[in-house]
Design brief:
eight-stranded parallel β-sheet, seven-stranded mixed β-sheet, 16 helices, elongated
């Protein structure tokens, strides 16, 4: 059964949140009817979403719909409970949050982070701004069914909820995770069941999610989608079927962004990572071949133990980068020639691994030169593009050559935040 349950107040909101989860590598189903054969829809999904169509309903009816849906759809497998609300705070936010809390039990609290940074919705000082304009001065104020008269998140929840409401503003967030965790525990112990957070960036959502988890207080997430997605990524491992195959990660980038992204995923116990010593690739042919074979053999020896393998160039560590200009002068070569040797060595490693591990169904390449070298080595005619996983990270499949149909994500070495590689790996796991 699904590990995440999201109750939304309308269908489009449910689907929008499901798309966020899908991009993060999770399978998500929007359930339109709660029927006895529901298991057929959600038994293999990571997340299920159910729209109650309650945004414009009377408050008491909205409460009942959310309460009943939560009771019916929760299972022993559910780890994340979420109440999806409108990104401009329209509807029965307080009553529906109360309903979910009542359905789950008195130990639960609600963590409300209603921002959607990529859509221009932020909360600062307790007030929601939409593209820098106070909420009550936007078009949401004139909604015929759900007009907005205040930008104050706290005012809206206090007017609608029967529970004590408290806010954790930016002055607490800037003190870091430990301070936020401590404040959550303090406010819950003081009798508050709904905690509202300032949030202006995705980093704020990461901070709030980590603090909530560290507090060990059972909570539901309340927001328009990004906060719930952040919590899901921290608490749930996407389901991977036994027959989906393995993923090969190839990173030759040598910049700080790539290192930050690698550092975020390498501690994961389900990833087998090995470093390709760049200095040995440009020494001589014997050392280069020995290094390539060492990498290949170690990955093949562990192919039954892992589903994700990573080849990472040693140059990602600043103190291990080869001075190509100095080496070029010593070997009477050009920097371009040395770079080509390195890129081709990565590509040769990929070919040998693919030949010996038929379970690899997808690859991830970081850095344009590495991607080109790999595609040339595999005799790729074209890459059939399917989707954008995140900005400057494209998902598709290889066409032509012996590995036609192999799925691939290509990403610029400096593209994305620190979670970009993690998100791309999750995406490949659930799409191969």
């Amino acid at each position: 059964m699904a590990q995440c349950l999201i109750i939304a107040d309308d269908l489009t909101g449910a689907n929008a949140t499901g798309v966020l989860l899908h991009k993060a590598g999770y399978s998500a189903d929007t359930i339109l009817n709660i029927t006895p054969d529901l298991e057929a829809c959600d038994k293999n999904s990571d997340c299920i979403l159910y729209p109650t169509d309650s945004r414009s309903r009377p408050a008491t009816e909205a409460y009942e719909r959310v309460f009943n849906a939560t009771k019916q759809l929760r299972t022993k497998d559910t780890q994340v409970f979420a109440k999806r609300i409108d990104s401009t705070l329209r509807g029965n936010l307080g009553q529906e949050t109360d309903a979910m809390l009542d359905a789950l039990g008195k130990e639960y609290v609600a963590l409300v982070a209603p921002c959607f940074p990529s859509s221009g919705r932020i909360v600062c000082g307790g007030y929601m701004l939409v593209n820098s304009i106070p909420l009550h001065k936007t078009s949401a104020a004139n909604d015929p069914k759900n007009p907005i008269t205040t930008p104050s998140v706290e005012s809206i929840f206090k007017n609608q909820s029967k529970y004590h409401v408290a806010s954790i503003n930016m002055n607490i967030l800037v003190q870091g995770k430990d301070a936020v965790t401590k404040e959550i525990i303090h406010l819950v112990q003081s009798g508050n069941r709904i905690l509202l957070f300032d949030c202006t960036t995705d980093d704020d959502l990461e901070l709030i999610a980590s603090a909530g988890i560290d507090s060990h207080v059972p909570f539901i997430t309340v927001g328009p989608g990004p906060f719930t997605t952040t919590v899901v990524k921290k608490k749930i491992v996407p389901r991977v079927k036994d027959d989906t195959g393995s993923v090969l990660i190839v990173i030759g980038s040598v910049n700080a962004v790539a290192k930050m992204q690698v550092d975020e995923v390498i501690p994961a116990p389900d990833i087998y990572a090995i470093t390709l010593q760049t200095n040995k690739l440009v020494a001589d042919k014997t050392e280069r071949n020995n290094e390539i074979n060492l990498i290949v053999n170690q990955i093949i020896e562990n192919k039954a133990k892992y589903k994700v393998f990573a080849i990472i160039g040693s140059g990602i560590e600043s103190n291990k980068r080869v001075d190509l200009n100095k080496l070029a002068a010593e070997q009477k070569r050009t920097v371009e020639e040395l770079s080509e040797i390195i890129n081709n060595a990565f590509a040769e490693s990929v070919i040998k691994i693919l030949e010996k591990n038929k379970e690899i169904k997808a690859i991830y390449t970081s850095g344009g030169d590495i991607t080109v070298a790999v595609c040339k080595a595999l005799n790729v005619t074209c890459i059939k593009l399917h989707n954008e996983v995140l900005p400057l990270a494209a998902y598709g499949e290889l066409c032509g050559g012996a590995y036609s149909g192999l799925k691939i994500i290509t990403k610029g070495g400096m593209a994305g935040d620190k979670y970009a590689l993690k998100d791309c790996i999750s995406y490949l796991k659930t799409h191969i």
